[in-house]
Structures are given as structure tokens and as C-alpha cells.
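Can't paste images in this forum, so I'm doing it all in text. The chain is below; anyone willing to post the predicted C-alpha cells underneath?
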Amino acid sequence: MEQTSVQKLARVLRVLVIITFICNILALFLVPMAACMYGTISVAELVDWGTEGLSYLFGLENTPQGYFPFTMMFCLSWVGIWASELTAVLALFLWVCGICTAAILWQGKRVLQTILKGDPFTLDNAANLKWASVCCFVISGAALARLVWSVAYYGNIAPLFTYNALFVPIFFMGGLLFMVMASLFRQAAELKAENDLTI
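Text version of the structure:
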């Protein structure tokens, strides 16, 4: 059976969603390094800390600074993020957002799969879109919590003018949109089921 233009587009989107999902999962493992680079702990400080610790451990006196590879910085950042409030809150926020966006992408892949099969109006798609809306609301809530924390931490309103402040309304509206779409898909699936029974 020949594919419609919508199914061809869904096939391309499915590939892009899978690639983005994989990149999202990989990025979750880099969150500690990003948080350390943003926060008060620099990657260079982590390397110095690791160098001193290993030189002490192995009895080496003159370990060259900055010699350790990326993997050492990666491993040390997983411990270093908990050294300050700023990096810990940022890492937790990025992990929550990353996990939720991965879930949204996975739900999108499942919806696109039903479009490829030629049967998009199912109750499963309504459930997938409802889960995507929950994830959007979680991101919006996490952004709001981080925004309130940042205002208290810095003692001024500067955080209100950051990307974090934009996450609150954008993902809240995204959650509402997914809820409306879930309701529409549920109604369409119910109508389709009634028509199938009638025929």
C-alpha cells in the first residue's frame, strides 16, 4: 500500500525524534559537567582536586596539572556538583527537564508510529498525549521552583529575566495544548469505535 504524504512526513519526523531522544539521553550524563562549569566550581578546580587526590593516593609528587582526560573530569563532576547549592540545584533542574523531555519525545515517537500504521485515532494516543502534558507541567513546575529559589539565593529579581523564567509559561501552555490534543484524540477514537460498531 502506498504511503500518504502525512505518513511520509511522519516517517521523517520519527527518525528526527529518535535522534533527538538519543542525544537527550546522552546529554543527561553531561549535566554534572555543565553544572560545574556554570556554577562556582570550575572544571579546572575539579581536575586540580583529582590530580592532588590521585598523586596522594599513588605517592606521586609531581603530577602534571591538566593532564587527566575527559573521563576524569566527567567522573569528578558527578561528585563536584554537590559541593555547592548553586550547582546542585542546577543539576537537579536539568535532570528533571531532561528526563521529562525524553518522556515527551518517547510519547511523540509512539504517536508517530500509529500514524505510520494508518490508525492515529486511538485511545493509546490520547494517553500518550496526556503523559506528554504531565511532563510539560512538571517542567513548568520545576522551572517555577528554580526561579523562586534563584530570586531568594541572589536576593534580587534578575532571575526573572532569564531563560528559566520563560520555561514556566511556555511549558505550562504546552501542557495545556497536549491536554486539548489528548481530549480531541480520545473523542475521535470514541467516534471511530462507534462508527465501526454501526457498520
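The chain has seven helices and no strands. The CA atoms of residues 27 and 98 lie 8 Å apart.
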